[in-house]
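TICKET #2291
ISSUE: user wants both folds in one file
ATTACHMENT 1:
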Amino acid sequence: MLVQRELNKMKIFLFSRRFILPFLFAMAASLAYLFIKFWNLYKDDLKGKNIPFEIKTAWIQSLLGGKLLTTVFLLGLLIGIIYWSHDFLKFNNTHRSIFSATNLFILALIAVLAFWYDSYVAPKADEKARTLLLKMIYVDPEEGFKPDAYTPPPQISSMTLTELYKARDSVINGEPVYYMNRGGLRGLNRLIFKKWAYPFSLVVIYFTGIMLGISFRKTVTIVPLLIGVFVFLSLWYYGHFLLDKMYLRDRTNVWTMAFGVTFIFAIIDYFLFRVLRKYGFYVEKYEVEELILGQ
């Protein structure tokens, strides 16, 4: 019965405290860090402007609800899955439970919801945050903040996926479009494909987190695991950065720019899974009860 209770608690990653707690902590810490960086960057521009508190609050809410949230969500998912899969090995047979149909269905559902948020909610939140920030920066201290003051022209980064497709069609047909676009048609394609790549990145990060959690299950300290996370995040960030620069300089196509890093890590995860399975990094069935009762 003890074994069964422990297995039921951990079978679905979304409902396991071993996933939820690290996930929420990583997201909260990342958002706090990024907000502090933003505040330190702009606090001198906002000093002495007599801006109402509710305006500053609205700016913070919009800032934290935009692209920052979708970015730190991936980080939180990675940390949560690493901790969950690492701890899960104490109680179950990994390849039969972590990759269960229930977990994969929940992962697909999260990917769809994250795609919708990144494509339709985050762009508008970012645009609101940018508009409020510029209004606060250019406010006249003597006149005070005016909601109807200067409104900056929209940028393509503030467009939803539907709006991006409409703008791309307008550019192709030679029709005028009223937004700030530094990259022309290539800039529009870049954002469109990045939005489609986001849910696939989320899925790959899920499996990468599992592989990292399994890889370091035999270590006695957390240091190697932290180094592994740092290496992964560095390769992920600089890989996207490099392909993005190559695309803007017309040295690669839009598919490679958007999906190249995700595809490479998917291949790495597959071969790493085979290696880990071959060299016995999974808990065998006869060890399960012994491990649980021994705690």
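ATTACHMENT 2:
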Amino acid sequence: MKQLEEIIQQYLEKRITSKEAADKSIEKIYKNMSYFGIHDIDEDDRSDFITFFYSKLEQIIQFYNPTKSSFRTYLRGSISSNLMTWKKVKYKLQAKERVVEDYVIDEYTLNIADIENEYVTDQSDCNFEPDNSVQVQIPSEMKKKLNSFCKKLPESTKLMILALKSVNYINQSHIHKLHQLTGIEEKEILDIFLKLQGSLYKKRLLYSQQKEYQNRSYILKKKSMLLLEKTSENSYFYNSLKKAIEFYDKRWKFNTERLKKSRLLTPSCAEIARVLGLEANIVRRIQHFAQAQLSDIQ
């Protein structure tokens, strides 16, 4: 810690600038995280805080009064107070996120009648008017292939399995056509769709969290890159920033790949089976068959 006092002395004697003093000081802080009380912070959060503190360090040095305390004590107090400020901002953002999550949960727990009314209102904007004079039919080739597989399973159930895989793209027109094809009441079809939509809430929430991790990694990488431009290449902190950039870049690429593999808008076979009261294996077989046999039929 003696080196910190030497650094501030050089600054007070105007042998180095406040920027140079900040660069040298952040190195000592980085090497002595335990002394400054930041060693037990999560790695991502610690890097974020050090970046936050470094942006203020030059001004902190300029306000230092050597008659009141040693520089290391002054720095320790500054880190402590800034850590509290940083945590308040962080917790405030987390609280806002929880409020949003709670709101979404409340929306998903609305009673089925309210959701149905909202759904129908949305569809009415499309000026949909069912034409009962036109009877929808399955193309003969598709019907033949569909009925050749899982013969004990009703055709209406097979059609519902295939339709539910695209639950996020179904509108009132599709529901009306499904009613004509399957004989199932539109209200019952709508109830099934809404139940499946509700089961997808956790999947959407997980996707949002993964997206947040991806954005966070990208922002921290960019922050570190900006700091690197302002840091001397001979500085210990410079090498630490380079490692941080590599770390955040790998984390960002990893999260990006996870998002690509995420099936946000596609319900799983198990979720479809649950709302239809079937075994997941049956749903899986129907979908695999459809992909293999019906993909060329429009």
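RESOLUTION: both attachments delivered.
EXTRA DETAIL ON ATTACHMENT 2: The longest helix spans residues 71-108.
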